[in-house]
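Journal club prep, notes for RB
We'll compare a predicted complex against what the paper describes. Inputs for the adenosine-5'-diphosphate case:
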Amino acid sequence: MPLLLKGTEIKPGINGAMPIPTFLRVAIPSPVHSNFDYLAPAECNPATLAPGMRVRVPFGKTKTIGILVEVVAHSAVDNSRLRTALEILDGQPLLSADLLQLAQWASGYYHYPLGGVFANMLPALLRRGKAPEASNSRGTLRRWRITPQGATITPDSLARAPRQAALMRLLHAHPEGLNSAQFIQYPGDWQSTLRALINKGWVGTEKVGDMENSPQPREQCLTLNPAQQEAVTAACNALGNFQAFLLDGVTGSGKTEVYLQIIEQTLARGLQALVLVPEIGLTPQLIERFQRRFNLPLAVLHSGMSDRERLSAWVMARGGQASIIIGTRSAVFTPLKNPGVIIIDEEHDTSFKQQDGFRYSARDVAVMRAHQANIPVILGSATPSLESLHNVNSGRYHSLKLPERAGSALHPSIETLDVRHQPMDDNLSQPLLTLMARHLAQDNQVLLFLNRRGYAPTLLCHDCGWVAECLRCDAHLTLHQGTRLLQCHHCGAQRALDKYCPACKSADLRALGYGTERIEHALKNKFPGTLITRIDRDSTRLKGALQTLLDGVHSGASQILLGTQMLAKGHHFPDVTLVGILDTDQGLFSADFRASERMAQLILQVAGRAGRAEKPGQVVLQTHHPDHPLLQLLLTQGYHRFADAALAERREVGLPPYSSLALLRAEASHRDHPQQFLNQAREAAQAFIQPLNGAGVELLGPVPAPMEKRAGHYRAHLLIQATRRSDLHQLLDAWLPGLKKIPGQGKVRWALDVDPTEMV
Ligand code: ADP
Ligand code: ZN
Ligand code: ZN
């Protein structure tokens, strides 16, 4: 897709000569891969046009908004058939040249239409034609702070209005005031709560400009240990140049402190820092840590924000008013006025890969963005992905190691707990219960991990063997006792819990297996009087709930913490001394070649929650396979030896990172259609593979997806594996356009996934 992102070849008519006709090449969100040509609006001066501006255009029977990518003097389309663009929405390009370039690269690499890439890059309000302005008073930043009258109100006295109490607590903690971007850490509709407080006279507002002469004291940097110092120095020496670093530091080794000090030096040079964190890593705790350190406007971007909040953060980042931008996956596309550094925390996390539509990896896009912007990028993790370790081994990334925990904290001891022959009480072995009692008696906290929410994953009729299944998926329904619902965790379908077996009318329906809800129930009986906090998607569904639960843990009120992987990342629980992983074996036997890597990462991340402060931590893994070689290797030799062995195995069989993959996915409501389409696609590919000289490009499948039926659709896929990435892309470029001509392709929904991370 050769695109010229330059507007220079346009020459307005000189001295009344006939103006050269001007055509606008516009990227529009549509499944069509090419861009669309339009005639320029009559009143528009072509000299003012530049790529990156939004254009409103007629499209089919409707109107839509696209991005101008090129202004050209010739169109391949018969000019009489071209329609005229309706309106140029921007006086200045909305997207800068560097983001246009990044979008173009991503479109080519992920084989996704450029218009669709832009749609993923822009906040919703900009896609709908709103002006790029912060939501309050045309771009001026406002801050709210507690009034003298408000200062006399103790938040605890507002027990009847918990939302107001929470906001007051936040404002009390920030006497210097908070701007709208900072409020975003407060979940839910903070505006209406804030309005209530303003009406009471407890909170006042002012423009940020008015406050600059009242700088607030900020938290001091910690004194770095030598390994941290080396990492900060190396990264800061690279400011102004592209270099990719892997900050490979065990949990609690002070990676965040390293980020903070790199950012500090970045800001000192007048540059901005973009920080990407996993979906569930963006906790209020982390944002507060940044705010304590930097008394500066912070732009926060995540999926829970309102459209106006997103737009404000975007505008502040683009205008340079926000020096630090911190967000989840899609924040990788945030415009930066003065890009300085990109940091990706927990780079191994799977949430950086988008799993539908534009299936990009924010980590990989970030590295490309840093390359194009000529700035350093830092990938941090205690359990780096095998891809990144491979990039270190091959010299592409520079490795920075933090081998020890920071401060006085020690590595936790991790051991397996062989549950074979052990009496199990609700999936809790006797030795584990004894250990828990011992840690609790010493006034410490215990964290239990089980990666399955709900009460039980299966509901079975004891009389006839009937099992509650989802009608739309190849999956069992999960029993949720609290809501008395049966839920499908794959398509979201739910229905009321049956009283009687639908097959034989028996009342003997039994819950099989364990979810967090059931364990919570069991713990309440075993440890009466001990407060238990369960953290999973169900217990945190209401906005603000997660924060309230975490507060209970941090205050020490709650002694047992139980949860899914929502608990595994980013949290710092100083009083947790025992971590129990209840179902270690879940990850040991899976068809997915990444399963063992994921298992090792999860075990170490969960284990990393233990003993992060002065108290030593103990981690036990309940397992039926204590001798499993991978588990043994991980526990006795550590993550890096495990990773070496896993990489050697991948090399042996030619899997990534020793090859490149793409997955052609197809789904349809008829079972045969995806396979038929993929069979023809496979045939079509053969013609292009031959000229590649059989250069290590292989087609595998098509096969039905591991869960063939999901949400009422049958799914299948064809895997393309290539030894060399360039061969893969050469094949895709040649092959994909023809897929639209396959007879019957209209009956299936198909999509390409480059560098897939999930084969499901
Ligand atoms: P990570 O991000 O690697 O998990 P953190 O940056 O959260 O680690 O640090 C873990 C703990 O160690 C925090 O409580 C932090 O304040 C402390 N810490 C980090 N660096 C230092 C240091 N140089 N000296 C003392 N304490 C430190
Ligand atoms: Zn039955
Ligand atoms: Zn379902």
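Talking point for the session: The chain has five domains: 3-127, 140-210, 226-402, 413-456+513-649, 660-754.
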